[in-house]
C-alpha cells in the first residue's frame, strides 16, 4: 500500500499531515472504523480522502461519502478533479440521465470517491449497486460527514441519517469513518449508538480556536453596539452578523448599509437567485458584511472572515461554536462577538416550552440552553467555559473579553432575594402573577397606578430596593431566569413564576454574582472577579 504521506504530497500538494490526521489516515487505511471530532477548518476531508485514494490504489475499490450538503459536495468534487482524483456526486441536482452516467462509472470502478446525499445512499436501488460492488470486493470505505446530523440532540438533526445503519448491517466488513465538527458528550454518545460505531476508534481533536477572541456584551441598543464594534475593530473587513428573524436581518442590513458599510441580507425568505448573488459577492469581494439567519454558513469556506457577530443568542453552545467557528479559518486573529439580554433568555425558553416536542426532548434542550446562558453570564474565561463544555480542560486564555478586562462584579444576592420575595408576596396577596416591570416598580417603591390599584404599595418589600437601578434589577432577573431560579410564563403575559430553584436563592444558599455594566451600584458591594 502506498504511504499516505506520499499521497498527501503527490495528490494534494501538502507537505505534512496536520494534528491527528496522520493517525486517523493510518487507522482507516488499515481497515479500522473511526469517529473523528475535529473543529471546523481542522482538515477533516483529508482524513477520508487520503484513505480513499490509498485503498483504491490497493485494489479495494470505491469510497462512498455521505454528505448532507449539496453545495459542499460540488466544491469537494471540483477540488478533487483539480487534484486529478476521480470523484463524482449523486444528488437531486443531476438529471436522470446524468445520474445514470455516474452510476455506470461507479459500477465500472472508475470512481474513487462518490459523494451522495443520505436519502440517496439508502434507496434500494443504490444499495443494490453497492451490493454488486461489495460482492466484487470493490467497496473500500464509507465516510459519513457531518455525523452529528444523526442525533436529535445535535443542532442539525436529519432523520435520513438514521437509516445509515444499513451500511453497517449490510456491508459489515467495509470500514467506516464518521466525522463531525460539533459534538458535546451527549451528541457524541448518540452518534456512536445510532451509527453502531461502538468499535470505532475515537479521534478527538482540541476544539480550541486560539485565534478567535470571544466577547459577549450586555444588550442595550444592539444595532448601535454592533456598529461600534464593526467600525471600531473591523472596519472594511469581512464578517457575518447572525440574527434570529428574517425581519431583523433585513432591518440590520439596512441600518448597516445606511452607515456606509457593504451589508447584504441573507435568509430563506429571499429568492434563490438573490441569495446566490449575495453569497457570491461575500465570497469574492473584500469587506462584505453578511447579515443572515442561520440559513447562511454551512459549507461556506471563506478563510478571511474576520468577525462573526450574534445580535441574538443562538439555541445552544454547539450552534454558537459552529457559527463563530466560521471566523478566522486562515488562522489570523478574528473575533466572535455577541450581544445578549433578558429578552434572549425569555425567547429561547419560550421557544422550547412552546415546541411540539416531547418533555424528555425539551428537558435536554433546556439543559443545553442553560449551558449557553452560563457562558453568557460568566465572569471568568469564556474559552475555558467553551472548551469545558466539549470536555476539554484549559487555562484562562488571555484573549477573551473577561480575560482582557476582568469585569467588575457585584453581589446581587440581596437584590435577588428581594425580587424573589416580592414575586412571592404579590402572588400571595393577589393570587395572580405579574411581569418584570411591575415587580421592579414595587421593589423600587414606585407607586404607579397599577401598584396602587392592586394595593401592592402595602406589600412588605415595597421600596426595599430603592437603592437599585432598574438596569441592575434587570440584570439580576436575567441571571435568575438564566439559571432557572425564576421562570417566565409565556402563556400568561410573560409573568414571573417562582421555581424549585428559587428556594436556594431565597434562603441565601446561592449567591448571585453579576457583571457590572452600569454605574457603581449602591445596593451591592463591588469587587473584582476572581
Ligand atoms: P473541515 O472539513 O474540518 O472544516 P477542511 O477539510 O475543509 O476542514 O480543511 C480546511 C482547510 O485546511 C482546507 O483549505 C484544507 O485544504 C486545509 N488543510 C487540511 N489539511 C491540511 C494539511 N495537512 N496541510 C495543509 N493544509 C491542510
Ligand atoms: Zn479567556
Report on the architecture of this protein.
The protein has 530 residues and is of the alpha/beta class. The protein is 43% helix and 15% strand. The chain has 22 helices and 18 strands. The chain has helices at 4-12, 21-29, 45-57, 70-82, 96-107, 118-121, 124-135, 165-170, 185-194, 222-233, 246-258, 272-284, 317-324, 342-354, 359-377, 382-389, 401-404, 413-430, 436-443, 449-453, 470-482, 502-506; strands spanning 34-37, 62-66, 87-90, 113-116, 139-144, 176-180, 201-204, 212-218, 239-242, 263-266, 289-292, 307-310, 334-340, 408-411, 486-489, 495-498, 513-515, 526-528. A 7-stranded parallel β-sheet has the order 3-4-2-5-6-1-7, sandwiched between helices. Helix 8 (165-170) links the parallel strand 5 and strand 6 (176-180). Helix 2 (21-29) runs parallel beside helix 3, helix 14 packs antiparallel against helix 15 (359-377) and helix 18 (413-430) crosses helix 19. The protein is elongated and about 85 Å long. Bound molecules: adenosine-5'-diphosphate and zinc ion. Zinc ion binds next to helix 16 and helix 17.
Amino acid at each position: 500500500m502506498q504511504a499516505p504521506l506520499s499521497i498527501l504530497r503527490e495528490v494534494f500538494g501538502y507537505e505534512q499531515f496536520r494534528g491527528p490526521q496522520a493517525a486517523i489516515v493510518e487507522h482507516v487505511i488499515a481497515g479500522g472504523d473511526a469517529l473523528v471530532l475535529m473543529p471546523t477548518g481542522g482538515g477533516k476531508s483529508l482524513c477520508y480522502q487520503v484513505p480513499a485514494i490509498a485503498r483504491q490504489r490497493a485494489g479495494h475499490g470505491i469510497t462512498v461519502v455521505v454528505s448532507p450538503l449539496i453545495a459542499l459536495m460540488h466544491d469537494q468534487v471540483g477540488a478533487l478533479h483539480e487534484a486529478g482524483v476521480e470523484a463524482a456526486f449523486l444528488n437531486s441536482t443531476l438529471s436522470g440521465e446524468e445520474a445514470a452516467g455516474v452510476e455506470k462509472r461507479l459500477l465500472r470502478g472508475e470512481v474513487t470517491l462518490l459523494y451522495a446525499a443520505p436519502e440517496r445512499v439508502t434507496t434500494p436501488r443504490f444499495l443494490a449497486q453497492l451490493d454488486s460492488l461489495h460482492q466484487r470486493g470493490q467497496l473500500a470505505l464509507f465516510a459519513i460527514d457531518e455525523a452529528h446530523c444523526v442525533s436529535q440532540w445535535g443542532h442539525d438533526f436529519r432523520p435520513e441519517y438514521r437509516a445509515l445503519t444499513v451500511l453497517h448491517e449490510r456491508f459489515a466488513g467495509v470500514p467506516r469513518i464518521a466525522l463531525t465538527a460539533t459534538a458535546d458528550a451527549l451528541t457524541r454518545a448518540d452518534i456512536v449508538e445510532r451509527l453502531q460505531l461502538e468499535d470505532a476508534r475515537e479521534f478527538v481533536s482540541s476544539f480550541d480556536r486560539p485565534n478567535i477572541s470571544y466577547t459577549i456584551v450586555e444588550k442595550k441598543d444592539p444595532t448601535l453596539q454592533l456598529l461600534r464594534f464593526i467600525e471600531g475593530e473591523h472596519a472594511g473587513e469581512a464578517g457575518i452578523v447572525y440574527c434570529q428573524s428574517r425581519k431583523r436581518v433585513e432591518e440590520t442590513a439596512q441600518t448597516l448599509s445606511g452607515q456606509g458599510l457593504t451589508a447584504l441580507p441573507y435568509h430563506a425568505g429571499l429568492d434563490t437567485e438573490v441569495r446566490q448573488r449575495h453569497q457570491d459577492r461575500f465570497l469574492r469581494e473584500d469587506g462584505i458584511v453578511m447579515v443572515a439567519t442561520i440559513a447562511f454558513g454551512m459549507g461556506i469556506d471563506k478563510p478571511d472572515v474576520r468577525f462573526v457577530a450574534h445580535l441574538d443568542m443562538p439555541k445552544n453552545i454547539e450552534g454558537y461554536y459552529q457559527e463563530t467557528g466560521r471566523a478566522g479559518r486562515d488562522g489570523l486573529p478574528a473575533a466572535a462577538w455577541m450581544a445578549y439580554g433578558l429578552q434572549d433568555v425569555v425567547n429561547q425558553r419560550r421557544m422550547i416550552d412552546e415546541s411540539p416536542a416531547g418533555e424528555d426532548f425539551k428537558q435536554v434542550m433546556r439543559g443545553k440552553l442553560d449551558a449557553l446562558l452560563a457562558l453568557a453570564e460568566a465572569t471568568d474565561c469564556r474559552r475555558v467555559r467553551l472548551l469545558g463544555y466539549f470536555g476539554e480542560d484549559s487555562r484562562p486564555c488571555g484573549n477573551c473579553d473577561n480575560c482582557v478586562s476582568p469585569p467588575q462584579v457585584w453581589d446581587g444576592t440581596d437584590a435577588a432575594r428581594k425580587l424573589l420575595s416580592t414575586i412571592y408576596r404579590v402572588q400571595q396577596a393577589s393570587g395572580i402573577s405579574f411581569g418584570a416591570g411591575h415587580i421592579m416598580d414595587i421593589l423600587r417603591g414606585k407607586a404607579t397606578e397599577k401598584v396602587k390599584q392592586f394595593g401592592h404599595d402595602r406589600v412588605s418589600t415595597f421600596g426595599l430596593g430603592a437603592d437599585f437601578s432598574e438596569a441592575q434589577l434587570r440584570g439580576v432577573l436575567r441571571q435568575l431566569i438564566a439559571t432557572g431560579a425564576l421562570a417566565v410564563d409565556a402563556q400568561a403575559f410573560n409573568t414571573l413564576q417562582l421555581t424549585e430553584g428559587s428556594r436556594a436563592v431565597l434562603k441565601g444558599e446561592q449567591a448571585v454574582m453579576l457583571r457590572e455594566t452600569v454605574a457603581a451600584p449602591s445596593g451591592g458591594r463591588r469587587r473584582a472577579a476572581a
